[in-house]
Every structure is written in structure tokens, then in C-alpha cells.
Amino acid sequence: MRFLAPALLVGLLGLALPFVAHLLGTPKPVQRPFAAVRFLPRGEPTVTQRRSMRDIALLVIRSVLVVLIVLTLSRPTLRAHGDAAAVAETQDAMLLLDGSRSTGLRVAGRSVLEHELLRAEEILAAMPTGSRVGLVTSDPQGPRLEPNADFARIHTALRRWLAEGAPRPGAWKLADTLGLASSMLVDAGTADRPRYIYAIGDLTLGGLVGTPTLAEGGTPVLHVPALAMSTLPEHVAITDARWEAAPDLGSGAVRVHCTVRRFIDGADALAPTRDVSVALLIEGKEVARATATVPVDEAGTVEFTHTLLESDAPLAATLRLVDHGEDPLASDDERHFWLSADFDLDVLIVNGDPSELRAHDEVFFLTTAAASTDQAQLHGMALDQLELSLRERGIAALEDTDVLVLANVRAPAPDTAGLLVEAVEQGLGLWITAGDRIDPEDYNRRLGSLLPLPLRDVVQVGTAPGRSEAQALGLAPPSLDHPIFRGIHSRPGLAGVTARRILLLEPVEPTTLRAPAIALSFTSGAPALLTRDAGDGRVALLTTSVDRDWSDLPLRPGFVPLVAGTLAYLGGAKTGGAGEELYAGQVRTISSTRPLVLRRPDREEVALHPERGEIRIEETYTLGHYQIRRGDEPIGWFEVNVDASESETVVSTLPEGERPADRERSLVAQPRWRELAFLVALLLAFESLVRWWMETRTRA
Amino acid sequence: MTRDALAGLLPADLSDVLLSRSLPPQRSFGGHGQGKHNSARSGQGLEFRDQRAYSPGDDLRMLDWRAVARRDRLVLRQTEAEVARALVLVIDAGGGMGYGGGTTRKFHVARGLAAGLAWLAANQGDPIGYALGQNGRLSGHTARPRRGRERLNALAEELIETEPVGHCPWLGMLSNVRTLAPRGSVVVVLSDFLDPDGLDLPERSPERSGDLELRQNLGQLRVLGHTVVLVQLLHRDELEFPWRGRTTTTFTDLWGRRVARTATPASLREGYLDQLTAHLAWWDEAAQRDGLALVRGITDDSIASTFLSILDRLATAGRIPRSFG
Fold this sequence. Notes:
The complex is a heterodimer of chains A (700) and B (325). By secondary structure, chain A is an alpha/beta fold. Chain A is 22% helix and 29% strand. In chain A, the strands form nine sheets. A seven-stranded mixed β-sheet of chain A has the order 19-18-20-21-26-25-24. A five-stranded mixed β-sheet of chain A has the order 8-7-4-9-10, sandwiched between helices. In chain A, strands 27-33-32-29-30 form a five-stranded mixed β-sheet, with no helix packed on it. Chain B has two domains: 45-80, no CATH class; 87-316, Rossmann fold (3-Layer(aba) Sandwich). Chain B has a six-stranded mixed β-sheet with strand order 5-4-3-6-7-10, sandwiched between helices. In chain B, strands 1-2 form a two-stranded antiparallel sheet. In chain B, 43% of the residues are buried. The chains are: A alpha/beta (700), B alpha/beta (325). Strand 2 of chain A pairs parallel with strand 8 (249-253) of chain B, so a sheet runs across the interface.
């Protein structure tokens, strides 16, 4: 046990007082008239009696009372690993609380945030006299208080914060709020006393694990886990929702993909897989339900197909987890998006080898095949034009494009290549077809992060030293599992293709970042058509030319469905183009010189007024569907969802040496004087009772 | 007031006893007037005493004709002459007699016994005298026995109104009795006999000077021919000293003459009981030596049983010889 005010222990000397009083004190004698006083022995027995101890029971109780009162005033504390404590010196401190959505996880009947509030109160109770404490949270809408000696306002602010709905989506990471806490400490002044930041949160990357132990200016950051336990309850969440047109299924058909994850440490999972039901709702009505089997440490997916009726306006769609019991963190069990019947694909084709002879034009067969579909809107542009446009407008130059085709195009200039990468990562589909103008090194250098596999070399098929006659490669039967071949259930009409030249690729081990999917291979095993996801976009690479220069692929019956399937696959990366997805708290900027109206998910309508030609929508903390109107005409739609990273509740481990148990010197302990004060009150009552009983017995 | 006034002072159980009792006859040295007690002289009475030879001039009505027939000579029958016998009540009304509560108060018991004795005496036509000693004062010249309603009323009134306080003036009371009581009276002394003097004497002074003086005066009454019965009334607290605790207690003297003792009862008890036992034994021996009848009663015992003990002692009191040793 330690004491925050050890000087007051000198009061234990007062333990002598009850002994002295009981030894020296002369109690009032009982008066008893008597007729035979004559026979009472003479002498001084009272002197002898005064020298002995009287009322031993009362003496013991009073001695214990003196000890307890002295201990209570000395503010004792006990060490407790994992519990909140305060440094045992007068200080200026900031309480930094993690208000991210993952702290809404319910553990032992309370949310993690409520546990954080308990830790905060424990720290405040352990604060040495004279300390000043402030408050800041990672919730942008959360309370902020300058360091002050009045702790009651911190209690009030925390309770109000909880009552207003914390934790909310859109919170910052704890580490990102450290700078604010540090600056508030510095602004509070008083450089002659130590400063500390008590970071209270969960052991996730967004919480304590990602928070350093020193803030700007060298202020120590003391990690205070909200919970002592390392195992948290499992919860499930929808981490992704995408949809794409499904023309193979018919006009107006869409496919909706839902990704579900289980958040639990694999070692703690009770079952290796878990079935979770997902419902698809359109305009609030459930239209379909499916079951996803979710393994531990992996995502489970479920796919819906739905046919939309023709509608001028996008439809509000929601994917929702249903019938999964009481989820400890339920705020991530929904995902919102806008569905649209407008399935046109805007395809921008960059012709790397134009020709006045149509049959020799690089993109003649491609555009003919693409035009044969109902949805493709084709546009053509030279690379120079594209680069100029990108330089002028940035990636906005491609905002109306769903798929960009680089047909036998040299690698874009480095500055524009970066913009292309960014556009693809934001949802643009990219199809690169091989040809003589492709320099593998340039492509690897400038677009390497997009390529399914690095490019190696252009080879003439079958050539070898000493071989005079070239050979050709055919195509192996395709992998019909690939989404490009959706709707094709038999031979795709690509038999008999002969390729004389192909683009060889580097054989690289697939990683989580680059996981190519091979849709077509040559009979030699070399990939012919492969795809990969890059950010929100998709990339396809055809290792032969899309004209007749390198192969006779365009002449095969299967070329048209191959082009249609590839374009549809690449264009399906975006969520239909019907709306823009924002994470809670993100700002949406709209260019407008006229006022607009915003309809929020709760049907509330808010007037938006432009400033300097643009409108900033900042209040995006409510999850759901938003609609922007100019007068009565809807002009924009967007949805606000939670960032899937905020669903992460699996406990990470603090680095060695930074776990609270490794830094015992900076922790004091939990205060215990409240318990002692309660004991004192009890004993006082008991002493009074005993004294009354003894006096009653004496009078009797 | 009549004997009903005394009856009001009698406890119920004592009243029942009185209905079937009378003061026992005594061998006396002489009385005056006709009464129910036997006289030392032969005379006209109803009870056979003895026979003697006829002398000229004797009353021929007293001839015992059966004896004459047997002895063939004249024999006279002698009977006890029934004479009046005075009852003198000497009542200690000092502060010590106020110890106890309710019916266990010593003075309450003494009052009841005195009322019972007076009632019997009045019933038999005996004259009654009394002396109450309280707070150093005597209650007038009431020691001279008298018959009649007025005496009874006065006694009852005194018994009712007297509140025990102060010390009892034994010497004066007994002096009055010696002077005023006719020879052969029955003197009943009601007291606790715990502290007749009450002087807080130095430790080495003769402790029993008061007891000795009282004893001497009581003995003188016996010598004068009175039947003296000492009725010692004690409260059970005085007899057993029930306090054993370690709480400091101040014992204050009810007689108002001794210095209070402050100590723990536990430290006093043993010594007290030893001294009390010695004191009671002393009075037992003194009474035996001096031919005094001693009756000891505890106030929480039945007053009727104490009363009967008094009557028993009265019945035997006349045959108790004095010890001159």
C-alpha cells in the first residue's frame, strides 16, 4: 500500500490517546445509597481501579477508529495491474479517450466506452491534490475541456457525451488526437509541473496499439487499457458492399456482393465457421435474403441478384445482417448504397496504333465488339489528349469514364501515370492490351502497382535457337469461374485461336496486394487474359494484341462476348455510378453557386448555402442515404457508411516494454480511502452502540 | 380512626394471620388491671395453677372438692389471675430503614409488623405504647402505654406519616421506655441494628461503641422485667451484596453520618460480607447472653412468616433465662 499524503501518517501517534484516556480517565461513579456503609472495607481501592484498563472493547474500537481515520486522510492506494492509476505527483494532465465506433463493443454488460469512463473516474480519484486535468476525445463532436482543478465538470462532460450517443462513427484514431491533447496541455501553462497524457482506449490499432508513448514536446503518454481482458466477444460486420450490372441475366439485372467478417481472435473462436444471414432491402423493403458462411480470419461473401424496374432515380438499397443474435457491436451490421437502372458503361479507348485502314486499326475489332453490347458508350482519345486532359483536370478528367482501355499504348508519362493509378484505385476500370508499342520496363515503372503481374518481354511464340519455323500458341479452355465469363456455361467460342506473339510476364508469387486472377491461358500455360483488383478499381491485361497483329483472337466467335464480359467486369468496380460513398465524418464538396437542399437519412431536410462557389457538407455522421436537391429536382446522391477499419476489435498487443505492466514505476494504484471512510463511519456507529450498551448495563 | 386505621397498614397475608392469633401469654412479674395475660400472683381467674391446704379465712368457694375427697382434708384450688399486659413498640425510623423499594422497604415491613402487633394488643384490651426515632427526634411521650381508640389513631397516624430519615436517637427512646413503660411490658424493638451510632470513628477506635451502648440499654429493659424482642429487618442487598462489577460506585450512607465509600463493588464485596457476618453473629450472641429474643427477617420474605416468628419468640420469651456470664 502507498499513500498520497504520507505526512499525515504522523497522526498515528494519536493512537496513544485512547489508551491514555482509558487509563487516566475517571468515569462518573454510580451513586448507591446504602444502609451498611459501615461494613464496607476502608482503604483506597479506587486508586487501584484507576490504574487498570477499563472497557477494553471500547478501547479496541476507538484505537481502530484512530488508525482508520489517519489512514483515510493519508489517501492510501493499492497497486493493481491493468487498472487505471495516476502518477503520484501534482501534475497537469489530459485525459484522452478513444471515442471510435469500436468502443461501442459491449463487454460484461457495458460498452468499451463505458469502461473507459470508469477508468477515467479512477484516474481522477487517484489524482494528487493540486493537479489539473483536462479532457479530449477522438470524437470530433466529443467534449474538450482545458486542464482545471475542478474535476466535477469532467464527470459531467463524460456523462453528457455518453448520453448524446457516443461512440459515433467517424472518430479519429487515438494517435491522431494526441496532437490536440498535447497542445491543450501546453496552452494551459504551468511549465514548472510535470505533464502527462492518459490515453484510455482499447487494444486495437485504432486505439492504444497505434498510439505512441511520447507526444509532441516530450509529454509522456500513459496507456490505460479500458479493459484488463485480452479476449473480447466476437461480433460480425458487413465490411463491403458492391453492385454491378448483370446483363447476362437480363435487362435491369444487378448483382450485389456483400462481404461479411467475424471479428475475433482465431484462438478464441468457438466455431471455425459461422452462418450469418444477410438481407437486401430496397427502399426499406426486404427483397432477398441469403446466408454467408464466414470462417474465422477470413471474409465470407454472399451474392444477390435482383432485377430493377425502370426508374428515373436511384433506389436506396441496404444490406443488413439479420437473425444473428445480439451482436456486441451492432452499428456495423448495415451497409447502404444507391442502386440505379442506368447501366451504361462509359468506355474510353485510347488507340495506340491508329490506322486509316479500318481492318488494320488497333481498335477496330474492339470497338465493333463493344458496340455490339447495349450498355457500352464508346469514346476515343489519343494518349496525348488523355495526358493533356489529366494534366489540366487531374483525375476529374476521368470522372465520367467507367472503363479506360489502353490498346497497344505506350506507358503514360510519369506525371499522368500517377493520376491514372489514383483513378483506378478510386474505381476506374483499366484494360491494357499488348502490342508493339508497349515497353515492359516503362509499364512496370509507371503502372507497376496496377499490373496483375510485372511485364517481362515480348516473344515470338515457338522461336528458339536453331529453330527456323515459328510456331503458334492456342488458348487453353478458359476458367469459366472468372466473372468475365459469367453467363457462359459452355464453350466460349475461343477454340482455334493462334497467337504468334505474346507478352510474357514475370512469374511472381501472388500476395495480398497483388492477387491476379487468370481468366485465359495459352496452351503453354502462359497467361493470356488476367485481372486483379486495385483499390476500388479493376485491371485487366491481355497479353496478346486486340487486333490481328499478334493473333487471330478477334476473328473467333468468342471475341465479342469476351470483350463484353471484360468491359462489364471492369466497369462493375464502381457502385453503379449511382452515388458516392462517404465514411462517417468525411466532407462532401459540391460545386454550386445556387442554394441546395440536403435530405438526410432521418428525412430531415437541411438548406445548403454556397460559399465561394462551393458547398461543403460536413455533417455526415448519420449513416444512411443522402440526397441533394436543387429545388424539387434531385441532382446528387451519396451514402454514408462506417469505415470497416472501425469495426476492428481484435486485441492487438502493445509492443514489449510499453505494456502498462512493464512500466510499473509510473503507476501508483487505485485509491482506497473511500472504502476506509466507509469503514470509519461504520465503526463510529458501532462504537456508539457499544457505549450505549455498556452504560445501560452499568445502570442496571 | 379505629383499629381499621391500623388494618390499612396490614398486608393482606398478615391480616389473615391476625384473625386466628393472639398475643401469647407471658410469665410476667406483674401487671395492672384485668387483662388476658396471667399474673404472677394467684387470683381470680379461670386457669388452674396449683393446690394448697386450706387456711382459716380462705374463700370456701375455692375448695377443690375432688382433692378433698381424695385426701380427706380441705384443699384449695389456685388459678392464674388474668391481668392487662402493655405492649410497647420501639420503631427505628432512621434513614437506614428507608432502604429498599416498595414492599421490600425495611420501614414498610417494620410498619406492617408494628401495626399487626398493635392490632392484636388492642384486640385483647392491652394498652399500647410506642416510640419512633427519626432524624434525632422522638415522637413525644407515647411510650406510656394507653388503651383506647385515641392511642390507636395516634399510632396509625404516626406510622403513616413517618418517613425514615436521619439517625435514630436510641438512647432517648429507650430512656423513655424505661421511664414510662409499666413493669412487665412487652417491648418489641423494630430496627435493622446495622449502625445504631453512625459515627465515622477512626480505624482503631472501638468499632462497636454504638452497638454496645444499645445492647446495654436493651439489657436494662430486660432487667426491669420487660420482655424484650428484637426484630432485625434486613434487605436482601444488605445480606448478600449482589454487586460484583468493576464500575466505580459511590456508596452513600443513608443515616447521613458516615463518609461515602467510592470503589468498585468487586473490590468491596468480600470484606463487606465478612464484616456483616461478624456483626450478625455479635448480635446473636448478645441477645442470647442478655436474655433478649432476636427475630431476623428479610424484607422480601413473607411478612406473615416474620410476624409468626415474632409471636413464637414472644411465646418463649418469658422462659429465656438471662446469662450472667
